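Researcher: Predict the fold of CopY family transcriptional regulator.
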Amino acid sequence: MADRNEGGAPHQARRRGQGELEAQVLAALRDAPGPVNAGWVQERLGGGLAYTTVITILTRLHGKGAVARERAGRSFAWTPTADEAGLAALRMRRVLDAEEDREAVLASFVTALTPGDEQVLRDLLAQAVDEGED
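Model: Structure tokens for CopY family transcriptional regulator follow.
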């Protein structure tokens, strides 16, 4: 018998937010003892996630440069190359690359920053300049 909510309707699984599953897969890979297969990731994530879904997410992450893979028999062993911040940066760069007027996008982004975030960005840019002079 199906599990039902108070109104008698069947419960539906909570839908993950965009990027949430990718972040969970990356977190699992970061916790791995080394390169692991998709089955290992699937076990760590639990929740009845289909093996094909895990493969799809790993393949997408590979396409984004967030994970690396190496042949392991007929399958692949996966390792992270980015953390959650790195994945977010990849997404931001992909959005920026898709726009025709990069300067307008960057200007709009910067003007919408909080004063604290603006200062962080200024500090990071200054640090990048200093490192470039070494």
